[in-house]
């Protein structure tokens, strides 16, 4: 029988060395990362290099067996395994399971060493992305002891068990295939199917490595409504003795993705509305424990999501297991992201083989992601060929699921890259990175009209929010109020277009991105609906809960925003109940209904007031307080900024640095002013050459995005991306010129 010995305890850890003879360091338990702190504090200076993990093994302490394998479930991002000074294996790719055969190499006393390296290179993905590449042995390490005859442990970290259900009517045909090592004469495979409660349903004993079960009156896996799972066990038998055994749960279901009607599960329309997830936490990095995964899945279930995009790499097997159990529809992908490396093709292939092989049996997975924003710099032939190879590989390995990509806004609708996968999604941030929230729905309508046979989804959308607050939310202010407004608008636009096959908020949780210096707290991407420590659910969390969850609730927004200067203030309530009543200091100011689940009230702001929102027996409470001057604790003051937006002089009816670019170039004088400015910034552009500010071709779509930026925000970005330096005096002088120009009248 197979024995699995966990090796997580008591490793010697030595930082910044690849010398396996080192015996000085600290004692750590796995999972472990060396970037739990410096990978989240900003500066893009977290340690990237080689570190040593070493452990002593006595063979007498191991279970008796013919063969021994070391199993590493996550070593980021490359690793070498040594036993007694001899190098046994190398692996590239930090997010998958891989194994090393120790058989014949074990002495009585053994020094096991793993050198893990997350340094930059040109062959292993990812190398450029908006998240921290935490180094370490950040998942479990096991020793697997097996008989000479065993289920295969050498092929891309797989289990040796492949289960393929096919549903037709009320029956399911379940093909079970096993992969074995040293299977001999007289040895058979005993296959057994169990129901969800563990009752034996059917049994087949055969010398064949592929058999088929027929299940009558099959119980379907039907997402969150009914995530029913069967279990299949396979045992290698010899004269009544079990030599090895493996098992896996599986679900029986049908699905299709329709370009008009979206996602269809078991013949029923099943809207996929959900979130994306990164696997790290504040102060912990990616070295997660089971309880961390459980808390994440519980929060995702609470918000009411039906789908998760597990970005941008293979996640822990335990999390996929939880998704199977909870009925969430999963997009699984490899970290082929942002920067196409011609020298990295083999790594994309090996990581895809690992992803599909290791996750094939998960009922929750429906699409395999080929890449993310990889065409941000354009699609050359090498990139296209790499995608065709991956697409064909996935279809060869898995004939039951579809392929997809996450394209970025700059990717043109006629890019040949979009024709490679089965379905397509886009990452759009209209209303945050330029553009306006109102652009989102029409953009997808245009794509749908242009490509009526290609299912289109939304793989990323979102905006950042920290503990900043305002009664006048503006794009780019990092306030909780603007994030709430943004998601209200996006929900109404995206959720009402049934042809959109899936929507994935970026992101469910704030996550580590050490290169980031935004929002007043460096080292994180703050687009999460929940903070990185999982302690606070931002108001936008409840906007989604109002649309997606059946659990009755009412939520009063702005509870962290107490001090307010205005005489009458807007109070927003989210609820999935039909009617909300608002009380101020115990007195009702009225009841409201809202088909969009967003309830707005105008409240007199006098002294200190207790606000209570009620929906039936449900209630939520907060306070507001009238103040004479704005509480600057609520206002982001950007460190190192040449100018903050609240320092800019504004004149009613005139333009300023806080005006949107679309307003500025909507005036003749504003257009002239910026034509001169852009001419200086673009400098040496040759005659006839297309303008590429910030490295992108100026398409109509990109111009629309840029029109949504304030002048200040656009110039700040340009300073970092175009080596165009603006002093405080430059900006204030430009503001004076803009103040002389009348703001264009709003179009009715």
Explain what this protein looks like in three dimensions.
This protein is of the alpha+beta class. The chain has five domains: 3-146, Galactose-binding domain-like (Jelly Rolls, Sandwich), CATH 2.60.120.260; 161-250, Immunoglobulin-like (Sandwich), CATH 2.60.40.10; 260-534, Alpha-Beta Barrel (TIM Barrel); 563-632, Immunoglobulins (Immunoglobulin-like, Sandwich); 642-739, no CATH class. It has twelve helices and 44 strands. The strands form twelve sheets. It has an eight-stranded parallel beta sheet with strand order 33-32-31-30-29-28-27-34. The protein has a six-stranded antiparallel beta sheet with strand order 3-2-4-10-7-8, with no helix packed on it. A five-stranded mixed beta sheet has the order 38-44-43-40-41, with no helix packed on it. The longest helix has 17 residues, at 381-397. The radius of gyration is 28 Å and the shape is globular. The termini are far apart.
